[in-house]
Amino acid sequence: xxxxxxxxxxxxxxxxxxxxxxxxxxxxxxxxxxxxxxxxxxxxxxxxxxxxxxxxxxxxxxxxxxxxxxxxxxxxxxxxxxxxxxxxxxxxxxxxxxxxxxxxxxxxxxxxxxxxxxxxxxxxxxxxxxxxxxxxxxxxxxxxxxxxxxxxxxxxxxxxxxxxxxxxxxxxxxxxxxxxxxxxxxxxxxxxxxxxxxxxxxxxxxxxxxxxxxxxxxxxxxxxxxxxxxxxxxxxxxxxxxxxxxxxxxxxxxxxxxxxxxxxxxxxxxxxxxxxxxxxxxxxxxxxxxxxxxxxxxxxxxxxxxxxxxxxxxxxxxxxxxxxxxxxxxxxxxxxxxxxxxxxxxxxxxxxxxxxxxxxxxxxxxxxxxxxxxxxxxxxxxxxxxxxxxxxxxxxxxxxxxxxxxxxxxxxxxxxxxxxxxxxxxxxxxxxxxxxxxxxxxxxxxxxxxxxxxxxxxxxxxxxxxxxxxxxxxxxxxxxxxxxxxxxxxxxxxxxxxxxxx
Length: 502
What we know:
By secondary structure, the protein is an alpha/beta fold. The chain has 16 helices and 16 strands. It has helices at 94-100, 118-129, 146-149, 171-176, 200-205, 211-216, 222-235, 249-254, 276-290, 307-310, 324-336, 384-399, 401-412, 436-447, 463-478, 483-499; strands spanning 3-4, 77-83, 107-113, 136-138, 178-179, 182-183, 189-192, 195-199, 240-243, 261-263, 269-271, 317-322, 352-355, 367-373, 375-376, 452-454. The strands form five sheets. The protein has a four-stranded mixed beta sheet with strand order 1-16-14-7. Helix 1 crosses helix 12. The longest helix is centred in the C-terminal third of the chain and has 17 residues, at 483-499. The radius of gyration is 22 Å and the shape is globular. The two termini are 17 Å apart. Mean pLDDT is 84; it is low at 1-50.
């Protein structure tokens, strides 16, 4: 079992809502689906004008970044970035890109558009074969071990050193992605995986105890979660305790401390499908389904609900299983920033909140599935030095205490930003205002010693492995076959795939 502890704080800029509609390899499902409705206490009226151009110039300025840990060259040059979104305009990387493209670094980010999911790697392979490799791409689960074993990435040894102080908190994670003695991935931050998103007003109206209060009291367990859903669903036949995707069960399983597929630092790959902890978690989840606490497979909402749609259904769906940062932003924006500018809601936190998945009462610690965010350098990159400088820039952004403090303030008390050009010149740009408690819990989930972190590797191989495992877990939860039956069917298929990497 591989777990990792994050010991010190670092900052995160606001996350973007990525405009794609299919599941990515981690099971997080960004979407552009829209739909207004009465979620929480904020309501909206019909729009009377169109939205301003989100890419229009504003008076937002880049932050000053302490470069004491790394001295930029001032001539980083053009760095070609392959991705399915533009990092220079999204809120995860906009400020870092502004700093990188300043005179301090002397860099330029050139975006090469790519599809998401497995097609991402197909395009990368095509560019490498044509000797036209990009210089950067974001880490996605399939990069390791699949991409590394296919010789798609440059080793970063000799360019970055995991023993340097700037990487000390992340060294166990960096080493966990070591392959044949080489390091290919230096993430600059830990990120949240799935969580349980909810509306505080729904909890209050149903007479339930706030899950956050149970979490802070150390009482947020599997059984507390189940009992809360039972009470909610008993109040109305239309109520649903929990809605998510077919990959969500991985986060529940992780609370046992055991990943479905594990890859150790020495390259050993372990198939845990028959592990008693996995069996216990899947059977517990299936029991939730049998008790009609989960959404039925033939539900009119389909097999998943986006945060935008959920924002109008929070009085019916108690918990939405999605990544909490994206969910909080996307659902709040749907409520407060609908089409048009005349009815935007400014400077007001929404009633939305989240808690991590509940603690397994039989586990020896509070385990949580987590992920990372960072960049890798593709094989044959022409500007490797510039790409390395960009990676350093992003890590410095996460470790600069002044920026850590400022980023928190930007979340909970954002300064007013106005458009400086175009039709909406002088008009305030909508920005989310985070609830301080929600923000601090989000940071606690990835930067405190409250949790032991579990990395799940089942999405890092190929489509066959992903499909076999996810389908089996889903069918055993909502179908007629038990997990024991499904496990016996897929275990040899999974072993066949894993043997190719052993």
